[in-house]
Each structure stands twice: as structure tokens, then as C-alpha cells.
Write a structure and sequence with these properties.
Elements lengths: L3 H9 L6 H13 L4 H14 L3 H12 L15 E5 L7 H11 L4 E5 L9 H5 L11 H11 L1 E5 L6 H11 L7 H14 L4 E8 L8 H17 L3 E8 L7 E3 L1 H12 L5 H16 L6 H13 L2 H12 L5 H4 L9 E6 L4 E6 L1 H10 L16 E4 L6 E2 L4 E7 L2 H14 E4 L9 E5 L1
This protein binds uracil (URA) and calcium ion.
């Protein structure tokens, strides 16, 4: 007969937990037999003492098996998924998923909502009137079979242990542990049934892990976990020291995604999209050089095929696709304020965490679990690190619902941006690629 207090006691002094002990814990939190306070005590012991690779793999599998394991085998081909650990101004999925799908690869993606200061694909999609992101398992599979793409929320039955642990970690300062993050992310990915998974691990102030070394360690660990479960894996570690794209919010990020699909001008966002798309396609078995695959990707963008794929997915999921074709139909919040540079110079840094938090404060994210989000508010990033600014020029624009919100977001922008009278270098974008 196992006792949870013995398992906590073992981890407290740095012992290694067996698969049986890990299963006992995971089964206990899902059934409700283990209360939150004991689960939280074990999480903190894990945070302090760590878990080795074997324990982390066991925890991941135990959590993945705590609910449904989606079976996508009736969809022909290698099913591709992509996951980001969470960023700011990161609308990558809304460009990448239709782009890869337009080249004929089935994309079956279960996405999340905003978490902390980071945005979530489901919230962004819901800013399109009528859009549904709560497909049933059957609808999800049928849609990928019919049109080659679906982006939906995970059903309650995918990795229920993670939902419970995530909520506890969020409020017990135990989010930023590599084993806990890897098992959280990979349990959901393994349960969602894709054959190939490409991970975008964010690093920097706007990410959950601030330093490159621990981000690379997390990426390697997740790749190893996926491969041990027979999945094709690749990962990148990318910069989140500054916002990635030019939009933070919901409708405003859908606009950026649709406009990028229409007119793929060079940008950091497009660079990441292309880099991830190449990794996904190579994972699916296309062994060609990345540069050749990129030519196909640019063709799918320039021909409008990728944009059409997004519009098709939106209408299939009940959304009004005319918003994708004509993004001026989205109504952004009416109180508009610009952050203006006092002197000329160069942008030296942009604190992505500060801007992510500011977007939550004005309503683009949730302050409490279950809060509604305001789709129309947001921040437009007009200058990135390394860009030249003139005195009097706007470097950010705020869309808010009240003067008070606009004023507070304006202060955040002023705090987040730092300038230099000398030319400042742009930041690296991709720190590591694991293939
Ligand atoms: N995203 C997750 O799903 N889990 C984590 O632990 C961190 C980011
Ligand atoms: Ca079990």
C-alpha cells in the first residue's frame, strides 16, 4: 500500500521516484484522492530536487495516459503538429498551419488559450465571428481528412493530469522547472496523436525560461521524450527577448497573420514561420535541402494557396472567412494612443514580458481563470530592436477601451522600450535547431 506522504518524503531528500510511485501520484490527482496540498508539496519537492530523464519520461507517459490518447491513424499521411512554449506577439501558428497544409501535409493541431503574459491561438481564432474551436474528436478527425487542417482546443479528456497540475504550478511558483514543463507539454502532444511534432522553445525575458542554456536543455529533453515514444521530432530555440511580430492581442494578431499570408514581406515572424515549416516538412519525410523547400513555401504564399487554406479552415469551423479576406472588417478598440520617441536614436531593447503583461492588463488576456477576453484591444509594435527612430516618431500604438487602460499601457510601452543614441544591433532569432 503506497502513501503519498512517503513519496513526498522520498523526493524531499532527492530520491528517485519509480514509475509505480509516479503512476500512483498521477492517478491520485485525477481521481481526487490526492488533495491539492499534497500534490503541491510534491511539485515543490520536484522543483527543488529535480527529476532525472527516466523519471521525467515516466511522468510524461503517466500524464499522457491519464486521459484519452487520440488515434489519428484513419487520416492518411504523416500528421504534423507544432507547439510553442508561449510567446508575445507570436502569431506563428495562424500562418504556419495553413502554409504547411497548403503543401499537402495534414496539420492536426490542438492549441491552447493565453497563459500568463503569453497569447493563445484559440483566443485569437475566436476573434473571428462565429469561429468554433471546440470540435469534437470526430469533427476534428473528419475535418483534417476533408480539408487537411484543423486547429481546435484540446478536449477535457486530453491529459487531464496536466490541467490539474498546471493550475497548481501556476499558483505555487513551480512553473519554471524543466522536467515539469517537458512533461506538461509532451504529455499533451503525445496524447494528441500526431506522428511528427516540431517544438518552438522560446527563450528570453518574455519566455517562461529566460536563459538559452536551460531552453536548449528543455528542447533536447522534449525531443528525447517524443522519440522514445516513437514520434518524429524536431525543435528550435528562438528569441523571446523582444516581441516576435508587430501585434499583441487577439483580432490584431489575426490581422497580422492574414496580412502576412497575403503579402509575405521579410520579417522575424516570417523567418520563424519558414524555419518551422521546413522542419515540419522534413519531419514528414521530404529530405530536400531547406532552401528548396523554402521555394515551395514562398510559392504557396505568393499564389494565395496558404491564405485560401486559412479561409477554408475558418469557414469550416463556422467562422466568417470574409474577415480573413478583408481584415478591415475587424474592429479594433476605439481609444488609440501612440507611444512617441522623445529623441532620435535606435531601439536597444524591448521588454516582451512587460508588453505581454500590459496587453493582459488592458483586456487581451485573462486576469483570472475563465475571464472573457476583449478581442479588439491590443498593442501594435511599430519598431523592433535595432530599428532607427526619429524624434516624434511613434514606436508603438495602443488600442484600448478606456482612457485609464490606454494610459497604463502607454506607461508600459515607455518602460518596455529602451533607446540608444548609437546604432544598436538586432537580436539573434534562432539560437539552436535540433533535427
Ligand atoms: N506550456 C505548457 O503547456 N506547460 C508548461 O509547463 C509550460 C508551457
Ligand atoms: Ca494511469
Amino acid at each position: 500500500m503506497m502513501l503519498i506522504q512517503d513519496i513526498i518524503a522520498k523526493k524531499k531528500v532527492g530520491g528517485r521516484l519509480s514509475r509505480e510511485e509516479i503512476d500512483f501520484f498521477v492517478d491520485g490527482i485525477v481521481s481526487g484522492e490526492i488533495p491539492d496540498y499534497q500534490a503541491a508539496a510534491l511539485l515543490m519537492a520536484v522543483w527543488i530536487k529535480g527529476m532525472d530523464v527516466r523519471e521525467t519520461v515516466d511522468l510524461t507517459l503517466s500524464m499522457a495516459e491519464s486521459g484519452d490518447m487520440l488515434d489519428l491513424s484513419e487520416i492518411p499521411g504523416i500528421k504534423l503538429d507544432k507547439h510553442s512554449t508561449g510567446g508575445v506577439a507570436d502569431t506563428t501558428t495562424l500562418i504556419l498551419a495553413p502554409l504547411v497544409s497548403a503543401l499537402g501535409y495534414p496539420v492536426a493541431k490542438l492549441s491552447g488559450r493565453g497563459l500568463g503574459h503569453t497569447g493563445g491561438t484559440l483566443d485569437k481564432l475566436e476573434s473571428i465571428p462565429g469561429m468554433r474551436v471546440d470540435l469534437t474528436k470526430r469533427q476534428f478527425i473528419e475535418q483534417v481528412k476533408d480539408i487537411g487542417i484543423a486547429v481546435s482546443g484540446q478536449t477535457a479528456d486530453i491529459a487531464p493530469a496536466d490541467r490539474i497540475l498546471y493550475a497548481l504550478r501556476d499558483v505555487t511558483s513551480t512553473t519554471d522547472n524543466i522536467s515539469l514543463m517537458a512533461s506538461s507539454i509532451m504529455s499533451k502532444k503525445l496524447a494528441s496523436g500526431s506522428d511528427a511534432i516540431v517544438l518552438d522553445v522560446k527563450t528570453g525575458r518574455g519566455a517562461f525560461l529566460p536563459d538559452v542554456e536551460s531552453s536548449v536543455e528543455l528542447a533536447r529533453l522534449m525531443v528525447d521524450i517524443g522519440r522514445a515514444s516513437g514520434r518524429r521530432m524536431a525543435a528550435v530555440v528562438t528569441d523571446m527577448d523582444q516581441p516576435l511580430g508587430t501585434a499583441i492581442g487577439n483580432a490584431i494578431e489575426v490581422i497580422e497573420a492574414a496580412e502576412t499570408l497575403k503579402d509575405p514581406k521579410p520579417s522575424r515572424l516570417l523567418d520563424i514561420v519558414l524555419h518551422l515549416a521546413i522542419l515540419m516538412i522534413r519531419c514528414a519525410g521530404d529530405g530536400r535541402d531547406g532552401a528548396l523547400i523554402e521555394e515551395d513555401l514562398m510559392k504557396a504564399l505568393r499564389s494565395g494557396a496558404a491564405l485560401d487554406r486559412l479561409a477554408l479552415m475558418v469557414s469550416r469551423q463556422g467562422g466568417d472567412a470574409s474577415y480573413i479576406e478583408d481584415t478591415s472588417r475587424f474592429e479594433l478598440a476605439g481609444i488609440v494612443r501612440e507611444a512617441i520617441a522623445q529623441e532620435c536614436g535606435w531601439v536597444k531593447g524591448i521588454d516582451a514580458l512587460e508588453l505581454g503583461k500590459a496587453s493582459v492588463t488592458i483586456g487581451a488576456g485573462r486576469k483570472r481563470k475563465g475571464d472573457p477576453v476583449d478581442f479588439g484591444v491590443g498593442i501594435s509594435i511599430r519598431k523592433h530592436v535595432g530599428d532607427r527612430v526619429e524624434a516624434g516618431e511613434a514606436y508603438a500604438t495602443i488600442y484600448a477601451r478606456s482612457d485609464a487602460c490606454a494610459a497604463s499601457a502607454l506607461m508600459s510601452c515607455e518602460k518596455a522600450y529602451s533607446f540608444s543614441p548609437e546604432r544598436a544591433d538586432s537580436l539573434p532569432l534562432v539560437y539552436e535547431t535540433i533535427e
